[in-house]
Design goal:
Number of strands: 19
Number of domains: 3
Low-confidence stretches: 170-179, 262-275, 440-447
Oligomer: single chain
CATH topology of the largest domain: Spore Coat Polysaccharide Biosynthesis Protein SpsA, Chain A
CATH superfamily of the largest domain: Spore Coat Polysaccharide Biosynthesis Protein SpsA, Chain A
Strand content: 15-25%
Distance between the termini: 25 Å
Structural class: alpha/beta
Shape: elongated
Largest sheet: 8 strands, mixed
Radius of gyration: 28 Å
CATH architecture of the largest domain: Alpha-Beta Complex
Length: 447
């Protein structure tokens, strides 16, 4: 299902705990700001129909150098991106954004602007659970022991209460603190971690459910800490799926350091010499000979021709060149390493191999394709009539837009093996944004 969910990005907070002059969502993170990164990554998802960004009522801080147009343009034109004025609280900001979602939209996701490291796989897990239950959130089991605490009486009162009795209270021992008027906090219970989760975003809801939840909260004067809490008050079951440790919310200065950027001491903006994500290129090439009795497949499209390309798989040279270019961009080997000539790969559709390979690269390297520029070198067959079909097929396999795939065709004026119509060759240059951090686990090839 394509383009069915509108995403609300809550970006109106002041981000005071992150320190610095600019709120965290407007600071630079590698090649762009945090908010631009979030909007850009959301727009690349085929499920996303549009994005509404709730901005601070006071406007975008001038220090960020951003404009509303910059934020809306970060969606790349693939989906509409709308900026609205937020409110005094997160709840008010989301309510304002929800009012801007088209009336015919059926599904809404809400995401924190300070969470730029979500993976597409996790987002899709939440979407699938949302479609099944009407409401879904990602969560992680807490790693630390969780204590419930309460405020207690002043130390002076506590000391008088235990006068004449043996007491190990810090305020009473030795009488050093006796009489000091201060409020203390004590543990009232230790919670069972097995029944707790730390909740993240994106959170996905059927739109009518979320609208009803916000309406009820406004009527009751209720203020929640996240959107699912408002939905729970309606008696709606909220499904929980696995979140991700990497999906951190940039909250404190140390969070930016964990993310691979270092805030400037003066402005709170990151040092560009420590980018979390960089733009890289990869080069791919492949060639295969013709053989009778084979299909001629290029870019996942079968082209009528007396002979087809020969190889262990379907010998789709264009797709193979794209695969090697993408692997080169993240320095992850070559197509032969990932898909060796073993029985499982015999006569495999190369676009299927491309899809599975890119899914792994995208997850391990937090990679996004910016553009693919390809050239097919063939004297025959004539491929021009099939280029649009190839672009659409490749784009669908990689979950990008056809406009991000350029396919050109040329000949060698009858020189060389392609000129003698002995086979076809293809080149690809891939432009990719990827994390500088190594994969969280070892790359598994041959999938």
């Amino acid at each position: 299902m394509d383009r069915f969910v509108w995403v609300i990005v809550a970006a109106a907070g002041q981000g005071l705990r992150a320190q610095g002059e600019a709120p965290k969502q407007f600071r630079r993170l590698g090649d762009s700001t945090v908010i631009e990164t979030v909007v850009s990554r959301l727009a690349r998802m085929h499920e996303v129909a549009g994005i509404v960004v709730a901005l601070p009522p006071s406007g975008i801080p001038p220090l960020s150098g951003l404009t509303v147009r910059d934020i809306e343009a970060s969606a790349g034109g693939s989906v509409p991106a709308i900026c609205v004025v937020g409110g005094a609280s997160r709840q008010e900001s989301v309510a304002n954004a929800l009012a801007a979602v088209p009336s015919d939209a059926e599904w809404v996701a809400v995401h924190d602007a300070a969470r730029p490291f979500f993976s597409y796989e996790m987002f899709r897990r939440v979407l699938e659970a949302g479609l099944a239950h009407g409401a879904a959130i990602p969560g992680l089991p807490p790693a630390d022991t969780i204590k419930q605490v309460e405020r207690t009486q002043s130390a002076a009162s506590a000391a008088s209460d235990c006068a004449g009795r043996d007491c190990v209270r810090r305020s009473c021992v030795g009488g050093a603190s006796a009489g000091r008027d201060s409020e203390v906090t004590r543990v009232s219970a230790t919670l069972n971690r097995s029944s707790l989760v730390a909740v993240q975003t994106p959170q996905v809801f059927r739109k009518d459910i979320l609208v009803s939840a916000y309406r009820r909260a406004a009527e009751d004067g209720f203020s929640g800490t996240d959107d699912s809490q408002l939905v729970e008050r309606l008696g709606v079951e909220v499904a929980v799926v696995d979140g991700e440790p990497e999906n951190i919310k940039l909250t404190y200065p140390a969070d930016f350091e964990r993310a691979g950027v270092r805030p400037d001491e003066g402005t709170g903006l990151p040092d560009r010499s420590h980018p979390a994500q960089v733009t890289v290129t990869g080069l791919g090439f492949d060639a295969h000979p013709f053989k009778e009795g084979r299909s001629c497949v290029l870019g996942g499209v079968t082209i009528p021709h007396p002979k087809g390309l020969y190889g262990h798989s379907d010998a789709d040279v264009l797709t193979h060149a794209i695969m090697d270019a993408l692997l080169g961009a993240v320095a992850a080997g070559d197509i032969g390493k990932w898909f060796p000539e073993i029985p499982e790969n015999k006569d495999a559709r190369s676009v299927d191999l491309l899809k599975s390979m890119w899914k792994r690269l995208r997850a391990d390297w937090d990679a996004d394709i910016v553009h693919l520029d390809t050239v097919i070198v063939a004297q025959a067959p004539r491929v021009a009539p099939y280029i649009d079909g190839m672009r659409n097929t490749i784009a669908a396999s990689l979950e990008i837009r056809p406009e991000q795939v350029s396919i050109k065709a040329t000949t060698t004026e009858r020189m060389g093996f392609t000129g003698r119509e002995e086979g076809i060759a293809a080149f690809c240059t891939a432009t990719v944004k990827r994390s500088l951090r190594p994969p969280s686990n070892e790359v598994i090839v041959g999938r």
